[in-house]
User: Fold these one by one.
Assistant:
Number 1:
Amino acid sequence: MRPQTGWLSLLSACGAVLLLGGATSAPAQDTRVGNLTGHAAAGKPLYVRYCAGCHGDDGDAQGENAQWIDPKPRDFTLAVFKCRSTPTGTLPTDQDLFDAMTRGFVTTNMPQWRPLIPQNRVDLVAYIKTFSPRWKRARAGTPIAIPPEPAATIQSILHGRELFQKMECWKCHGPAGHGDGPSANTLTDNKDNPLRPYNFETGSRFMCGVTNQDLYRIFMTGLDGSPMPSFSDQIQPAQAWDLVHFLRTLQPLNTPEAAIWRAWLATHAAELKPIGPEGGTQ
Amino acid sequence: MVKWLLTMALGTAAVASRPTPALALDGREARLAVAAYEVAYATHSAAIPAFARKYGLRCSACHTVWPELNAFGQTFKDNGYQLGNDRDSPIFQNNAYWPIAMRTTPQLHLESTTNQVTDASTGKTVSQAGFDLSGVDFLLLGTLYKNITFGLVPTLDADGTTGLEAAFVRFDNLGNSPWANVKVGKFELDNLLSEKRFTWLSGNGGFLYAYHYLPIGSTNTFGFGDNQIGAEFSGHSIDSYTRYSVAFLTTDDGTPGLPGGKSLDAMFTLSRAFAMGGGLGPQRFGVFGYLGHRPTAFELSGGTPIPGTGTANKSFLRLGATAQLWVGNLELIPLFSHASDDAALGPGPDKPAWNSGLLEAHYVATPQLLLQGRYEVLRMSKQGDPAIPKTQGNADAIALGVRAYPFMFSRDGMALHFEIAMTKTIGTVPLSGDGSGVDPLTPTTAVWSRSFLLAFDFAF
């Protein structure tokens, strides 16, 4: 933490009062979200105010609170981000960073910064991009295309369940999606910090959104920096939607998929093979 | 009767143990004493490092400078002191975590008041100066469970007297909607400009006339800045840009034990913020209103009023509008209010009415440095008794201050606080200083009261 008081800052502040304040403007890396342009210079004091306690003054995830936080905060110097609309291994778009900041991350210490005015959030995005030279070397990836979602049916859900078994999702997320698969305790992030897989039973939101499209995007882009890979090379879009429909049945929410699933289970539960090492296809 | 009402308003224990110079005074002086007492012993609360410790956020995440809430902090409070990340229930906290914080303010201060009537003079300036203490607030707030919030604020005054500033339970997000929340107990009113979270501490600067003034001869005891007992229904948009609250409150100005009558007061607030400009927060506009009642008759036992039997309620009204505007790092907070009391709550045949307005400015140079100023004016528009000069009770108050925070992190906070505040009142002693003082010799004499404060305000 850097001391920020003293006569110099007091005098500066007095001068600024005479000028009626105002956000600073300075050359910044090009950051745009919608009609808004982000300014890194304006984002810096906002970062100190809201973010540095966890992410560190230098963006290296070494803020004074980081030692107490689980999971650990993002290290901006690596420019590796979980929630993206872009293919795995690529940089996220400005909109992705803006959305992540706005949405926060469920079951972590990262809150929803939605109350900040949009300009503040865009300025923060601009400043976060100053921590890694990767932003100067590479451009953001091209957002993946998400085809229209087909209607959820019991066939779609059952097929998704087969994929959950076949793709071995259960090894981390557990047979019932409770985040308790046999590999769950061995997972680490890209900095070797322990990481727990997502528990579908407790979370009202997903790590990167709330909609079916968000869920589709998660396993087609992967969560970079975590063990959650991208499945874009392994499953087709229609299969991905089937998986989405099945995963929705694992949440304690009254989703359309859950309603279809419960109705089918009432008469067909005995036909299901268990998910897990002994499981097979339906 | 007045003495009894005053006793009820202050509480038996408080009257017994705190300085009570007005207990033997007539109605006009008692009115002054009640208001001055409430101001002098008003506690400043609600800078809560326990939340910072729980969530690992710096003070500056929720406060423009603590204790004033910023937009994020307002949303956090509106959501029942929850971040909403499915980790708010205490079951997710380490067993060693306790939701408690403490705040107090060792200080050096000077108070002076002009035109005081003493045994030796009819217009003497009385001054006090020296090292002193504020009380201590014990801030226990947090969640009992997901979407069940509690608050408990015991207080310890500098003279050793204890109190209970707040005690409530709140049910949040009913039906999974942020628009439906219910709070029951004793709590701060949903004031858009909060006296509990503002950045003024001195005898003349640490309160608002708009929230505490009562006209000459009033037997009313209500203060907007006083915590009240009742139930509050409130709601907000997911970012708290739109907020409302409706509260129903007992008619005792926060005094427990149901000493008054059986009627209820009602209060509402409504505000809307807009994400305009590039300042530190959104531009918020709001209105508020309070319709209260106070009994004017009681059942008697041996000539003594029986608590809780108040009847013949007479009403009073408070209406106002305020805003929170940002220009870069400069925050402007204007507030206007109109107030009136029923004639039966005053000294004569007329309904007293008055208006007040203020403009408060904060320059938030950094999360660790605040420069601030405030000017407030109060003007009587009608006295309760035609014999009272129209200007008597008028007030002008100005305050300037600096708060510097030498460090900023998520475990505690300290501010070096410097403040100068002055008030001028006509024909009455200001609601300021240490709560003592007497009216000037004539109803048209101006009384100046001044405060100088250098304090170490800390919370852990």
Note: DSSP finds eleven helices and two strands in chain A.
Number 2:
Amino acid sequence: MIALAGVDVRRGGRLVLDGIDAAFAAGRLTAVIGPNGAGKSTLLEVAAGLLAPETGTVTLDGAVLPGRVALARCRAYLPQNPRVDWPISVERVVALGLSSELPAFGRLPAAFKARIDAALAAHDLSGLRDRPATALSGGELARAMLARATVGDPALLIVDEPTAGLDPRHAIAAVTMLRARADAGRTVVMAIHDLDLALRVADDVLALKGGRVHAAGPAASVFTAAVLATLYDVDVRVADGAVRFG
Amino acid sequence: MTRALIPALLALLVAAMLASLLAGQVWLTPADVVRGLGGGPSLAGLIVSEVRLPRVVLGVLVGGILGLSGAVLQGLLRNPLAEPGLLGVSSGASLGAVIAIYYGVSGTLTLAAPVFGLAGALVTAGTALALARGGGTATLILAGAAVSAIAAAGVALALNLAPNPYAAYEITTWLLGSLADRSWDHVELAAPFIAAGAVLLALTGRSLDALALGEAQAESLGIDVRRTRLLALGGTALGVGAATALTGAIGFVGLVAPHLVRPLVGHRPGATLVPATLAGAIIVTLADIAVRVLPSPPELKLGVLVSLIGAPFFLWLVLHMRGRMP
């Protein structure tokens, strides 16, 4: 469980997060939603321990966040539109998820190999093992990145817009995979624009607007026409597990 | 492939070094070399131990640090066109040495040019770092480019104001880059700095692999990106600064060496470091043989030859990568 209390973040003199209180529980998938510029990505960076808040605290299971490497072993973070800058093989990209545990030099130890194989198989990547990551399609790269993030079986998984640029089938596969992580008892946080997908898999929802918490709670309590209409400033109807704007 | 790469490069380097001991205006036999290394009092022995060996050792040190620094900077900046001169280190070293020549200090003290060059390299790298403090990688590149331009302007000014044609000639000759007439004194001056720089650069190896995913993901994987940046810059300032101060500017080695070996190690930035070091040392050693063997009345300068071969390669690289890079 990761908790933010009274978190303020300022960027370029502007208050991007303003007194955020939020908690993400183990075994639950929390969707962070809100209009552009609401502070979703910043909130995720703070929760991931990558950005120190100006004021306020972030605690992991009630304690202050551990050091850089210890944190890397229990938390995985995927930024928006992740990319790989060199034509490294998919297998090696996934292996980078184990960076904090890998030996500094030499080949992959056998024990790691098995974990990497499992992650590749789980993300339907076994056939692409030796493909350069720069030669992957958008959907394949997104799967490789999710495999990279989950290969270390992190207790806390934070993902920014996992479905951006994906076709419906791959988008559904991505959120289903995140759902499975939560079902396995991990804490999963995702920022997402696609409300139908969020509605389909999220346990809890944190709605941000202008750097403040607009609404938070179980998905059913946030995905209401009244809350969403004031969140996005458009007319909204929610019916039959779908959100309709306008 | 990967496993045999380093031994193969090592063997190639040793062969090139041996050939370099034999080649020159006076060709020696292996027997002469053995006698020379044994310290026998003969002309051949003198040529080997006092002229060719320091030159070979310096060539390996300079080529190695250029290759290593290029590999580290390309990995750190995630840019295949990054090279050691990018951060102003080479221009700073040149300016320092040019000041020593301009004021005639190098006429009275043999090691004045390299010592001034080293000081110039450290000052420019320090300035670039101070300017870029708190900023990201892009700020660092821009600060390096600015400092580099200032140092280059200083060199141009010295050439413009040179008191006599001979001083201008001496400056230009030095700027062309060469290993000729370097002694053990030069090696002793440069080796500690190059070794220290190499250690700092080598420490970045593992972080570079994770940096292939970008700075945000690297941070999330437990990599201290700030520390990696400091190691890369500090190592380049010390190592490449000392190398440039000793030999003048030798371009393209740092740019080309990593590209030659990268496909052979699966493009992993961290795995590129050792092979790129060896490749850089091989390139400089072979080029130094070529400048001594090629029949050109005034000896062709090493920096000129490397640029003549390196620049077309660079062009090929740009064309080749046009299709692959985003």
Note: Chain B has one domain: 2-322.
